[in-house]
Structures are given as structure tokens and as C-alpha cells.
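Typical record was shown:
=====
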Amino acid sequence: SYNHAPLFGSRYDHQIAIMGKDFQARAANSKIFLVGCGALGCEYLKGLALMGVGTGKDGSIVVTDMDTIEVSNLSRQFLFRQHDVGEPKSVQAAGVVKKWNPCVKVTALEKKVGPDTEDSFDDSFWESLTVCWNALDNVEARKYTDRRCLFYSKPLLESGTLGTKCNHEVILPYRTSTYNDGKESDDNENQIAMCTLRSFPYLPKHCIEFAKQAYFSDHFEFGPGQYETFRNDMMSFFEQLEAMEHGEQKKSLTLIKLFIDLQKENEGKIDFNACIRVAFTRMIEDFRTSILNICHSADQMEKADGTKFWTGTKRRPRAIDWSGELKPDLMEYLYCSSNLYAVVWGVEPVRDRFEFETVVKSLGLEQPEWTPSSANVDLSEGDGEAAAEEGSDDSEELKRDLYAVDVSKLIPAIPHDFEKDDDANFHIDYLTSATNLRSWNYDIKLSARHDVKVTAGRIIPALATTTAMVCGLVDVEFCKIVLGLQCLGRDKFLNSNINLAAGSGNFTTFTPDPPVTISSGLKLPQPESFTSWDKIEITPPGSEELTVEQLVAYLENTFGVTVDRIFAFGHDDSKIPPLYNAIDRQKIDWDITFDSDGKVQISDKAIFTQWAQLPMATQMFNRLPPTSGARKRFEDQIMTTKKALDQTKENFLSSFRGAISDAYCAAYRPGDSEEDAEARQYFDTVSEARDYVTLGVHCHTSTEEDITLPCIKYIYSKP
């Protein structure tokens, strides 16, 4: 046909011969938003450039990724080379495909896509898109882009890989279900109970996880970070501390106290010898003292109830012994741990092992004699919450000690930032050593360094085959969108769920599901159901804005409901006052007055539910004689409540009878404090660019049945 021939030597001739000239023209003028530029993103960007997408006058590709290139990326993200390490992924990838196809118009960004970047990715940006294309590695980001595509009615191409497994999903406006209709989350389904990690490990991965969470994270990341917060701003630290759980509070306070005591012991000067001593103390505490304490507590429990404790997967541990000749595994731990502490305190590491061993021998380190701990060791099957509560008295004592510290005399500390791919930073070496000492404690198979790196670094091996295959499948679905096949229905498209390890029997493709219907609770002729793609658009007939009162009346008259609450869509948080609350409307008729006899009159006893002190004050005021001094105190309480009620009524009426956009701003704009300045500026920037607000509504029928309505997009004219 004329659509497929003749061909005139274009680089896209083979594609035109199959897809047609109209496809090529549409692809060239498509506007693509590629979110993520990792393994999937690189493959997608390569495909788009080679297909000639975004090469036309009106076409473009925008790719964004906040990450920089790491060494471990090079084995599966094929647009990157060794010299790219440390550079932004999106920038380098865009540069590579631009060389392959100089005509492609690609813009590389290093911005996160989320609620805090809607000033960059604004209405005009989203409305201009042809397709949003996800290449993300976390559920929350996927959910956000899905919500944006829902709001702007844009197609979304979604995919993911996990080793040999992969899947893809085509999301079409009004024709398919959406990503948020599913139940997927980032929760770790294989989480290990903390009691197992803490006291009863029986697998190598238990020791690796504990070494990462309790040893490395606490002493080299969390501890130094908390110490620095305390050193830089003591009062701010204690404010943040109140938001922590009791266990986290005590851990934070204890680690800071250890850092301060270390400086006192060394008269404010920390050298490498001090780093070795603190590493030795930590080693004895973690792999000897704590182990002996666990065994002692278990023995006491066995004597008390006569039941054998070490049964099933519970292994009786054994403690390390420093006495005698230097043991290689203990020296390895000291070597790695001492150098990690050296980095924390800004001391030059000692990398030469012979020199290090010489220093250790010169210090004459001796393990202290063990005596049973007076404190009970937590051997419970739970996660230690009860023990944390019991330690609240210790926390108060630690707080008192820290309040007395002169922070101006403290030495700065540098927290570590875990990096699995830097072999010179001691991180993986330390974790391997700590893991294997704990494994020795519990007679568990020792772990190779590579195994520790894979587990601690949360590495799921990525297969280039899996990535290439799923990207090819999604590219085909993209071609269908460019051809406009969505107009023919969702059955022209395919989703996939594939496991290469299971062979061809697990290569499943299927038609995308239709949109999930949501029951409104309304009766005909009102809509009985809707989908998440639907919106109710409300525009005032003239240039004047609707008031909140008019909006409530419109909704109640149109749908035959009683409106309970109106709030920012997606932000029905009870801690934030809504734009409208029917309970506040009832307060308009409330009143507190004094009759001719001087008695207090309450118009509605519902007032008592809002001001708990009012019933007693009213009763005592009406009972006591006018000459009573106590009566004056109760009168003051009543007058204070009356003023509060009058102010509440005034504030409500001001919002209720004011413009919707003003009420929205009053409810959700950050406060006027200096610390909210940045959030306030962002809110103002986003609001200034929009001529609408999105609202959610809670309402019910005359028979008290809850009604669900779609998102309301209220559009208004700006002056």
C-alpha cells in the first residue's frame, strides 16, 4: 500500500515497511516522559531513539533519574561505561542515544517525580504528553505517576523485573484498571523476626542481617549521625528525640554517651590507638559478654521452670576468647572495625596489616573478667517492645547526663554512608568479619565475602535477558498506542507475567483488566458507580467564585445527599482541618448566655462534648451565691469558653461564606513560621500556576448510608 511503500532510503525504512508511514510520523511527533534510567530505562531510551521517537517538530523525550552511575550498574545498564561512574544516569544515557540518532530531541533531568516537584512537572507538562513510561524500582513512585496519569488521562506503560521474573502492564485512560487499583507494596514479605536476629539466629542470612542492622548501622551510621545532631544543636536533638519510640530513644542516647565518654577517656584527643581500643571493647561486648549473658539468663530460666530452653532452631551460643595467641578472625574484625572508627573521627586509617598488628600487640589488650549482668537479658519471642518500655528510666538518666554536656568541646564525627561497591571503605570487609564471628558464636556456616555483599547490599541479580525481553514487549505495546489501537478497545493490548527460569510454560500474556468499578451508593437516575478515571468538574457560571456554602448546596441538591466533610483530594487526614465540616456548621446555632437571674444558659448540650470543663463550671456557677469567690473563677472559665465558641463561629462563617480557593489555601497552606518558609513558597508556586483545586467529599443519604463520589475538580477564574 501507499502507506508502506515506496521507501526512499530512510534509516527507518524497515520499520516503515511493517508499521507504515503514518506510524513513523506519529512516533516522530510523540512526547514521551521516561521516569527512571536504570536497567529498564536504558533499554527503553535506546529503543525510542532507534525507532525515531521524538525526532519530529512537535516530538520530544524527557528522561529523569536522580541516581548517579555506580560500578555495579555496568553489568546490566548498557549505555554506561567505566568512565561514566559517578555521573548522572539520565544525562549520560541521553548523551549516548543522541550520538546514535542526532535527530532525537531528548532532555535529561535529575529530578524526583513526586508531590514535591509539581512546580517542575506542572499541568502544561503533563497535558502535553503522549505517553508516560515508567522504569522505576519502587512502588511508591509508581503509584504517584499512576495518579498523575489518572488525573491527566494519559496512557502509562509499566514494567518491572526481579531476577528471571518480569512483567509489564498497559494502562489506558478509561479502558483499563490502573496500578493503584492493585494491592502491591514495598513491604518485605520475608522479613526476619527481630527476636531471631537478636538472640536465636540459625541461618547465615540472620547473621548478615544482624551485622548490618545492629553492628554497622548503629555504630557507624545511626550513632555518629545522632551524635552530630546533638553536637550541632542540642535543643533540636531533644525535640527530635521525643518523636522516637522508647527503644530508639535509648539507643540514640546510649550511643551518644559512648562517643562522649570515649573523648573523656582520651582527654579530647582521639588517635588510632583509641580507635583500636573502642573496636576491641565493641568486639568483647558483642561476641563475648552479650553471648555469656544470654547463656546465663537461659540457664536461670531452665532452673526456674524446669523446661529445656535450647530446643528446635534455638542454638546455645559460645563466646569468643581473646586470651592466648592472636586469632586471625578476631584480628580481622579489629582491623576493619578500627579503621571504620578512624574514618568516623577523622583519623588516618592504618591499611598496612603488619603495621596494624604491631600496634595491637603494643597496646596489651586484655579481655575483662565476665560477671553475670544484673539486668535481665530479653529472651522473649517478641520484638523487644516491653524491654524498651522498661528502659524508660535509664533514658531519663541519660537525658540528664547529656543536658549537662558542653557541646562546644566535642569533636566532630563523620557518619558512614554504606556503599557496597567501594572495596577500599572497609564496609563489606567489616560486615563479613562481624557476620562470621556471630556465625561462629552460634555454630552456623561461615559466609563468603561475596554472599555478604549480595545480602547486605540487597542485590537481586539482574539478568540482561529478562530486561531486554520485557522491554521488547513494552515497545510493541507502545507501537499500538502510536497507531491509535486504544480506540478499538483494550483487547488489542497485552499485559505479561513471565518467569524465564520456568520455561515457556510460564510465559503468560493476557488482556488488561477493565477499570475497577466503585459503587457510589446512589440510586438511579444518579450514577450508581464510577471508576478511578472519572472526575466531577465544577466551573462557576460567571467570573465570581463559588463559596464553600454554594458548593455544599450544589452537591446536596445535585446528588440528594448531606455533605459531612470537604477536603483536599487524597488528603483526608483527621489531623488537618478540612475546608468544610458539618460539625462546625452545627456550632453556628450554639450559644452561651446569661438569663435575667444571672444563671448560665447553654443552648445545646452538644457544647459540652467540645469543652469538657464547661459542665462543671456551669453547674457550680449556677449553684454558688453571687458573693462567693469561687463563683468568679467558674465565671472566668465560662467566659473563656464563650469567647472560644464565638471565635470558632466567626472563623467558620468566614470560610463558609468565602471563596473555595481561599478556604483551600487557609486549610492547607503551610504556616507563617520561618521553618515552613520553603514549604510555603512551594505551595504558593504550585497554587499560582493552577486555576483549580481538587476536592474529596464525605457525604451520606437521608437513611445514613455512606455515599462515595469521584474526585471533584473545581475550576475557577483568577483575577
Notes: Residues 272-305 form the longest helix (34 residues).
